[in-house]
Amino acid sequence: MEFVRNAWYVAGWSSEFDEELRRFTILGDHVVMFRKSDGAVAALEDRCPHRLLPLSQGKRIGDTVQCGYHGLTFDCSGKCVRVPGQSNLPASAYVEAYPIVEKHDIVWIWMGDAEKADPEDVFDMPEFTDPAWEAHQGDALHLKSNYLNVAENLVDPAHVSFVHPTTLGNSASENVPVHVVTEGKAIVAWRWIRDAEPIGFFKSFGGFTGNVDRWHYYYLYTPCTAVIDFGSAPAEDAIPEKERNRGVRIFALHFMTPVTPTHTIDRWMHLRNTALGDETAAAQMDVMFRKAFAEDKAILEAVQEEESRPQKRRPIRIAIDKGPMVYRKRISELLERERTHDVASDPTPAFVYHD
User: Fold this and answer.
1) If we measure between CA atoms, which residue out of 126, 69, 90, 145 comes closest to residue 298?
2) Which of 4, 62, 144, 286 is deepest in the core (most CB within 10 A)?
3) In this structure, are 99 and 164 located in the same domain?
4) Where is the Rieske domain (predicted)?
5) b/e map of 289-319 (b: 16 or more CB within 10 Å)?
6) Which residue, of 63, 85, 119, is where some domain finishes?
7) CA dist 310 → 1, 52, 306, 313 (Å)
8) Could you tell me the CA-to-CA distances from 111 to 124, 198, 216, 341 in Å, in that order?
């Protein structure tokens, strides 16, 4: 399976990196990562070009990595700086070095063409630095599932009523229409459920006892970032859609890292506009999120198992699949763009285009 390589992916939470050499597998490639003496994270191809021993099985010497087999040593740019027993350093003795950006306690890595890596393209939200919001990192959920299926699940409000009936959904939303917009940077799917019983999450956390107005907005950014804006407000307040901050509002963020074609890591966290500074509330929310995401895990892994078996007929598509279908199309377009080298981006005057 091909992966989109010219994109920023989450390599891990900042807390996952220290001075030790650690192997991470991202887009099927092994990467050795560690913190340099200045605190920045370095990322190198985890394979010595000599006999292919993983560099993660070697050792650090300052800010260089020495192979544990024959001592070839590489700096953080991937350049070989020492070959024991000889003075010349072959040009072919190098390893790939990957661009890294660390932001909001998240480490991002670029696995494609390094010259195309723009730190300004790293995902961000104003709520990360807004004092009216609290950020809290959750877990790294390992899924035996293709990342495409994981991503599609995260732009699908319709599944919530059936997969999460006691946590993030209930039967009140089963027949409420889902709205979808596919023209912007993100694919967006959303719906409002007015004057209904609160879901389990907000019964436990929001303290709602009467009926509420609640919402789910799903934003999927290609290739692997999803934001779910959900919340509730007392039904009698009848808040407009653009005034969601008046209610208890949560952003659940999902950063998907494809490991292999059938293994995806979903690092999830949340931003909230209530219970600021309350770690007890954050821990309670983590418990509820873990229960809900375990429900997703069971579904996604069962789907992956069936996809791996011979198919007797083509799968069907129904009305709720508009967002996932557009997502797959965008992924295909990105892959096609990476398969070719566009040398006609600045046409000569011999070709005049009118479209």
Assistant:
1) 145
2) 4
3) no
4) 8-109
5) bbebbebbbeebeebbeeeeeeeeeeeeeee
6) 119
7) 17, 36, 8, 9
8) 19, 42, 32, 17
Flag whether 262 is in a domain.
yes
In the three-class reduction of DSSP (H, G, I as helix; E, B as strand; rest coil), residue 121 is classed as helix
Q: Which tokens is 186 given? A: 């993100």
**Number of domains observed in the structure of the chain:** 2
Return the SS3 of 248: strand
Which pLDDT score, from 0 to 100, does residue 169 have? 58
Residue with tokens 């909230």: 272
In 101-233, alpha helices (H) = 147-153, 160-163, 200-204
Quick: pLDDT tens for 294-306.
Answer: 999 999 999 999 9
C-alpha angle 166-304-228 in degrees, rounded to nearest 5: 45
Measured at the CA of 152, the angle between CA 293 and CA 215, to 5 degrees, comes to 65
Residue-number span of the structural domain to which 180 is assigned: 129-310+317-330
79 has which bridge partners? 94
Give pTM, 2 decimals: 0.92
Per the CB < 8 A criterion, the answer to whether 105 and 13 are in contact is yes
**Whether residues 103 and 192 fall in one domain:** no
CATH at residue 12: 2.102.10.10
Q: How far apart are CA 199 and CA 204, in angstroms?
A: 9
104 shares its domain with 134: no
Has residue 337 been placed in a domain? no
Q: What is the pLDDT of residues 81-113, one digit of tens each?
A: 999 999 999 999 999 999 999 999 999 999 999
| Domain membership flag for residue 176 | yes
Q: What span, in angstroms and rounded, lies between the C-alpha atoms of 66 and 59?
A: 5
